[in-house]
Write a structure and sequence with these properties.
The chain is of the alpha/beta class. It has helices at about 55-70, 85-95, 100-115, 135-145, 175-185, 225-235, 250-265, 295-300, 305-315, 325-340, 350-360, 365-380, 390-405, and strands at about 20-25, 30, 35-40, 75-80, 125-130, 150, 155-160, 200-205, 220, 240-245, 270-275, 280, 285, 320. The protein has a 5-stranded parallel β-sheet with strand order 5-4-3-10-11.
Length: about 400
């Protein structure tokens, strides 16, 4: 599947420091230690509605990871999926009388344009689940051969008893896992399962649903197995970071980690599991199911996409926060001040700005702290301080390369 166009990223003087991130599985901030090529997998959208600010908040967080690794001298191998067949998509298509393929294609294209506008670096592989049905089936066969699956009325389940480290990613109690499993697409109460937390790998064909042939009969993949198959095929086991929103900690990342462990024999499946916080509106998490969404495409009609990016950067990526309209107004003011400052013929020296931004951003992506550094430089510049003719252009490049904001 086609990705989107990449913005040009300026090269900065020197080399950035190693990136430290909060690993959910470890429960603490620690160094990422990629080789020459850093490997990143970020779970993509289920394309049944337009990109909202919660999506943008997540993908911006991992765009920063990508940029900081590049600044530290790494190549970055970034893979992302689009879940272009799944229950929510099929349900929305039925509700609206649309063909599910056309709905998915339209929303994926809108997502591409939103990501381009926000200057999110594109993945090397952008993979639709419908493109890799055979790979998913092969992975399920491998899990079956290793004794990790069982059949229930034509559906294929992963047997949680085959995952001795189950719970290691989330750190959740079984009680909490059961509660979340029922809320997030699982079926803990289905009769005949060996354990309530066993999860679906292959869903046998149901009337009116799309299906594909497989060694298990006609059907389609379960939710978690698709990302495992795509990550294994493109990045291999032991890749550096698996990312997504914090609502993916369980069951999605937990289940995928153990599928990858059984299939590849390596633990951990990803060296770090990194999660962005949730964005709320009117006191509730912003989500398609609730219908309380602020769409990026609509905001782009009203304001500069760089102001949208700045509004998101004003919050630490791991924090849960609530969107209010005044945040956009503040971001627009900040953007205008920064552009005025870098448009001056001279300004305060910029080498300290570069060092401070690198220090803030490599410390678990402290974007709010980084914004404060640029604010302080802009204040000095606009007050007439500084005589370095090269400083405004260097600050422009620093902000572009490390924060992704084009001034």
């Amino acid at each position: 599947m086609r990705s989107w166009s990449a913005p040009k990223v300026p090269r900065l003087p020197g080399v950035g420091a190693p990136l430290r991130l909060f690993d959910t599985a470890a429960g603490e901030v620690g160094p990422t230690q990629p080789g020459p090529t850093a490997r990143l997998y970020v779970c993509g959208i289920t394309p049944y509605d337009a990109t909202h600010l919660g999506h943008a908040n997540t993908y911006l967080a991992f765009d920063l990871v990508n940029r900081l690794w590049r600044d530290a001298g790494h190549e970055v191998h970034f893979t992302q999926n689009a879940t272009d067949v799944d229950d929510p998509l099929l349900e929305r298509a039925e509700q609206t009388g649309q063909d599910w393929r056309e709905l998915a294609e339209r929303e994926i294209e809108l997502f591409r344009t939103d990501m381009e506008a926000l200057r999110i670096l594109p993945p090397r592989e952008y993979v639709g689940v419908t493109e890799v049905i055979d790979q998913v089936a092969e992975l399920i066969e491998l899990l079956r051969d290793k004794g990790a699956t069982y059949d229930l009325d034509g559906d294929v389940y992963f047997d949680v008893a085959a995952a001795p480290k189950f719970g290691a990613v989330s750190g959740y109690s079984e009680e909490r896992m059961l509660d979340l499993f029922g809320q997030r697409g699982g079926d803990p109460d289905r009769a005949g399962k060996k354990h309530p937390l066993d999860w679906l790998l292959w869903r046998a064909e149901r009337p009116g649903e799309p299906s594909w042939p497989s060694p298990f009969g006609q059907g389609r993949p379960g939710w978690h197995i698709e990302c495992t198959a795509i990550a294994l095929a493109n990045l291999g086991s032991g890749f550096d970071v698996a990312g997504g929103g914090s609502d993916l900690i369980f069951p999605h990342h937990e289940c995928g980690a153990h599928e990858g462990h059984v299939a590849g024999g390596e633990w951990p499946f990803a060296k770090a599991y990194v999660h962005a916080g949730m964005v709320a509106l009117d006191g509730e998490k912003m989500s398609k199911s609730k219908g309380n969404l602020v769409f990026v495409s609509r905001l782009r009609q009203e304001t500069d996409p760089m102001a949208i990016r700045l509004a998101l950067l004003a919050h630490h990526y791991r924090s849960d926060w609530e969107w209010t309209a005044d945040q956009m107004a503040s971001a627009e003011v900040r953007l205008a001040r920064w552009r005025s400052a870098v448009g001056l013929p001279a300004g305060p020296e910029a080498e300290t700005v570069l060092a401070e931004l690198r220090a803030r951003m490599t410390d678990d992506l402290d974007a709010p702290g980084a914004l404060a550094v640029v604010d302080a430089w802009a204040d000095r510049a606009l007050a007439g301080g500084g005589t370095d003719p090269g400083a405004p252009a260097l600050v422009r490049d620093i902000v572009d390369a490390l924060l992704g904001v084009e001034l």
